Amino acid sequence: MSQDVENSAPEHGSIELVDDGQLLVFTGEIDKDVVRHFRLMVRPADWPSRVDAREVTFMSSAGLELMVHLARKQKRAGAELEVVEPPTSLRLLLNQTGLNRVFRSVPAPAPVTPA
């Protein structure tokens, strides 16, 4: 019996590919279930070089491992993973684990105002 991947998406967090595949948006609790769902839905060849982590409330070791894999993919391509404004709690975790050295933290883009 196979379970539909879309219907098995975790409700407590998500990782979504947006902006025509140019950005990953991490939201809520990034744990092993969220990472597993993401890996089933998005092939590593399609992983972008930018992650928006502004809405992360928790990140497990599985989430940290995914961040390492994302950064390694970029490094192999001669680039660097950019993480958009990780919240203080995530920034502290990344600093404590030394993972802050494997990517570059960048500010969020300024909102576009109508002319």
Automatic annotation (TrEMBL):
InterPro entries the UniProt entry points to: MlaB-like_STAS, STAS_dom, STAS_dom_sf
Record-annotated STAS domain positions: 51-115
Pfam family of the protein (one): STAS_2
The name this protein goes by in its record: Anti-anti-sigma factor
Organism of provenance: Klenkia soli
